[in-house]
């Protein structure tokens, strides 16, 4: 059985973490071994928390790429020992979050994306499955207000801009899921996709 590397993408407040937890539980009930990880990793989150206002979007993208370069090795190692590895965010998150703020630096979002893809050539481990949890930004903001502290790192993010950039990244290989559905129902769809891929 070939292991599966699955990634969840979406704006803050789309419900990724909740769905990931449910999918992990469902997979383990079928006897599968699962390792769950996330970006930013703990080491990257500490850098951001220690220096919250020190980085422009280009610097942030380079930092995230460096973090991901190491993260992909951790993922590869865990794919040897687990049936499924799930990451809450991966490379598309960097494109959407940092790229949406780079148009002023590069002249356009398309040029920013071209540069980010060039830099990201060092990331060679790509997911077998990518799920995008689709939700309108007003719903996402309402969810965020219900569970996040006012000084959270993500509160200053322009979700409208990030959501618009995400929409330009979606391809036929990325499965878009309605994030307004019950998490249990979303997780059931994801479970079947992963089991079919194994």
Describe the structure.
Helix content is 55%, strand content 14%. Helix 1 (16-29) packs across helix 9, helix 3 runs antiparallel to helix 4 (91-99) and helix 4 packs across helix 8 (159-169). The protein has one domain (4-197): Rossmann fold (3-Layer(aba) Sandwich), CATH 3.40.50.300. The longest helix has 25 residues, at 57-81. It has helices spanning 16-29, 42-50, 57-81, 91-99, 103-106, 109-119, 137-147, 159-169, 183-197; strands at 4-9, 34-38, 84-88, 129-134, 174-178. The relative contact order is 0.22.
How do you describe this structure in short?
By secondary structure, the chain is α/β, with parallel strands linked by helices. It contains nine helices and five strands. The longest helix has 25 residues, at 57-81.
């Amino acid at each position: 059985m070939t292991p599966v590397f699955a990634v969840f993408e979406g704006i803050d407040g789309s419900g990724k973490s909740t769905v990931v937890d449910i999918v992990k539980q469902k997979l383990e009930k079928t006897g599968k071994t699962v390792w769950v990880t996330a970006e930013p990793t703990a080491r990257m989150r500490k850098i951001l928390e220690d220096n919250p206002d020190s980085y422009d979007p280009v610097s942030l993208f380079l930092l995230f790429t460096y973090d991901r370069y190491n993260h992909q090795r951790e993922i590869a190692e865990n794919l040897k020992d687990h049936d499924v590895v799930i990451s809450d965010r991966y490379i598309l998150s960097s494109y959407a979050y940092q790229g949406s703020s780079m148009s002023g630096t590069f002249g356009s979002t398309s040029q920013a994306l071209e540069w980010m893809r060039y830099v990201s050539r060092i990331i060679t481990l790509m997911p077998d499955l990518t799920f995008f949890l689709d939700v309108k930004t007003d719903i996402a903001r309402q969810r965020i207000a219900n569970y996040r502290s006012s000084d959270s790192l993500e509160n200053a993010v322009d979700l409208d801009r990030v959501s618009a950039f995400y929409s330009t990244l979606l391809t036929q290989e990325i499965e878009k899921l309605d994030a307004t559905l019950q998490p249990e129902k979303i997780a059931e769809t994801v479970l079947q996709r992963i089991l079919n891929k194994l």
